[in-house]
Each structure stands twice: as structure tokens, then as C-alpha cells.
Sequence to fold (247 residues):
Amino acid sequence: MRISCVRWRTMPERGWSSRDLLPALERPAFYCRRVRGGELVSAMSELLRKSVRWAAFIGFVTALMAMVMTVVSTALLNGVSWSGGLLVVLVIVAINVVFDMLGTAAAAGTERPFHAMAAKKVPGARHAIAILRRADQFSNFCNDVIGDICGIISGAAAFAVVGSLVMDVGGDRTVWDVFLVSVISALTVGWKALGKTLSIHYANPIIFQVGKLFFFLEDKLHIRLFNAKNNRKRKRKRGVSRAPRKN
Fold:
């Protein structure tokens, strides 16, 4: 028998009884249960297979999105004054911060409050549950994919703005490069710090609003981003497939 420790979820969600908990745990964020070696290897293999498949998919999506966003930002900056280019850079930074907040909220949110809302068929509740059940993928897309793309594009756009700024205002290009990149970095980090504080303390309301948006896209525009249906199969007793027939 082996001991596997997984991240803390409440016992009703995971379905473990108090007998599965080890009493002397130094960190309450984790709990442990006894599993067999074969079960542990099988679970790790399945998790690795899904992770590799998701990594390949998200890498392909990132390449496509990077190309599209680069073309769009280049078109917007072409022939624009330095003030207009600076506004485009600030918009890119704001998009980066907003998606960072969404990814943090998905990682910090809890699923339980949305079950009662989903039972009452509140719009967006099922989609919020779907987001929280895929928090790793959702946060990876928001924090890593969108965040990294916006960071790279904002840096490239800043250099384009500096070129226009030097032609209009004058001065040393190196000084303007250092100054503008420093300001953009400070704004990005500062806004992200504020956004993370808000998204951690108000994780569920933020995810609920995103769930409402996904519900609108699916209900009105027929665009499904997440499968919000409950695909959990009911467990049957071993050796019993259906009730015996009566003669």
C-alpha cells in the first residue's frame, strides 16, 4: 500500500470518509489516502496522457493566436501617431491584466456554491462549474497563453511607439526605449498585483460573471466553449448490471 497526497477538497466533494484522513498533517491544504501501487501508476499515466494532449493542443492554439494578434496590432500601429500607439499598448496591457484576473479567479474559486444555483437553473451556474472543474486548463489559457502573447506584443508595440516618438519629439532613442519599457513593465506588474488581490477575494463572483458570458454565447450565438453538462457516470454495484426479471 502507498500513500498519495492530493490537494485539499472538501470531503463531500471528493467522497472520502473521515477514516481516509491521516490525523497528524502539518499542512491542512492537503489530505492523504491509502491507495495501491497499481492504482497510483494508472492514475499518474492517465493524468500524464491528458496533460501531454492538452499541452500539444494549447501550443498550436498559442501559435495561431500569436500570429493573429501580431497582425492586428501591427495594422493598428501602422501610420498611427505615438499617442495613438501608446493607447494601443495600454489596451494590450489591460487585456493582459484582465485575463490574469480570470485565471487567478478560476484557480481560487470553489465549486460548491454553484450547485444550488445550477439546481435552480440559474443562467451561468453550470458554466461556472465547468470552468472550475477545468481550472488548470482555463488558468493556463488565461495566464500563460493570453498573458505571454500580450507581454510580447506590448513590448514590440512599445518599440514602434518609440520610433514615432523620436521622429515627432526628438531625443535619444535608447533613453526613450528604456523609459517606455520600464513604464509598461511597472504598469503591468502593478495592475496584476491589484487584480490578483481582487480575483482571490472575489473569485466566485468573477467566475459567475464569466459563466454568464459563456451561457450567453451558447444560448444566443450557439458558441460552446465548455461542455457544461454533467458527464459523471453513476457507479453500479460490481456484478449487477440491472435488476433481475420477475417471471
In short: Confidence is low (pLDDT under 50) at residues 6-32, 233-241. Residues 138 and 211 are 12 Å apart (CA to CA). The first strand starts at residue 2 and ends at 7. The helical segments are 11-14, 37-77, 82-108, 113-119, 125-133, 135-168, 173-201, 203-219.
